[in-house]
Amino acid sequence: xxxxxxxxxxxxxxxxxxxxxxxxxxxxxxxxxxxxxxxxxxxxxxxxxxxxxxxxxxxxxxxxxxxxxxxxxxxxxxxxxxxxxxxxxxxxxxxxxxxxxxxxxxxxxxxxxxxxxxxxxxxxxxxxxxxxxxxxxxxxxxxxxxxxxxxxxxxxxxxxxxxxxxxxxxxxxxxxxxxxxxxxxxxxxxxxxxxxxxxxxxxxxxxxxxxxxxxxxxxxxxxxxxxxxxxxxxxxxxxxxxxxxxxxxxxxxxxxxxxxxxxxxxxxxxxxxxxxxxxxxxxxxxxxxxxxxxxxxxxxxxxxxxxxxxxxxxxxxxxxxxxxxxxxxxxx
Length: 332
Hints:
Elements: H1 28-38, E1 50-53, H2 60-71, E2 76-80, H3 87-97, H4 108-121, E3 125-129, H5 138-145, E4 149-154, H6 165-171, E5 174-177, H7 183-197, H8 205-214, H9 219-235, H10 243-262, H11 267-279, E6 281-283, H12 284-294, H13 301-313, E7 317-320, E8 327-330
Parallel strand pairs: 1-4, 1-5, 2-3, 3-4
Antiparallel strand pairs: 6-8, 7-8
Helix pairs in contact: 3-4, 5-6, 7-8, 7-9, 8-9, 9-10, 11-12
């Protein structure tokens, strides 16, 4: 860092999702379990496929990337299935990770052949993040059939509930749970990142603690609060962050989180969310009837229930009661 630099944030990267830390705080148990499942690949043996599950911002992606980068850099690929949803796109991204030239216009069958040639030569591990956003699960069958080690990750506990039985049995997944961080755990993580990003003395510990509580267990939100707070203080020409910037950053970071998750909803879910957003709180049956009036081709009741489960798991909606007595409420 340049000592003449009076900026509050001297390195923004540690406050972003792209940053892979050198040490992983408060995820020691998950790290040990993931290492146990994957380490056989170092001796060219089959690994245990794993399913990393838990709310947003709980370290799933960071841990998976850290382990792949540390031990399996030459034999692994990472694909975000929200960005690359189709069978064809996933195979293309895996091949590109291994520097196998593809232009993306090849027939899927050609990509499968290239992929099968790759896995004949070496043991391969693939991480499919946000796996529930795949258009279909056929790619999982091809990967598992070719003895590829799989790390699947999702915020949704029910993400793989509709997997065909032939795929489910071939995967034999070991589940590793990532609960929301406790405020004191999040404080440790945020304080650690501040050391790599903020000028010394530019933000007080009390403000980091406020951010760690406001983030409600989500490290991504906590980091965004700090980043926005630091930027706001810089824009005002301040030497350090004050409570005012942190308060503003908390409001903005929470709105950003909601916008991020609503962007992941399909068209039917967006209609349901908009209805609930206007009414704030509705009985399940009433919400479904209002939705059916609002669209030309409504989904059936079972699909509606599954969509609502997903929206609850994303933290966009709260639910009370059971069965026909369920009441949904928008998360403020």
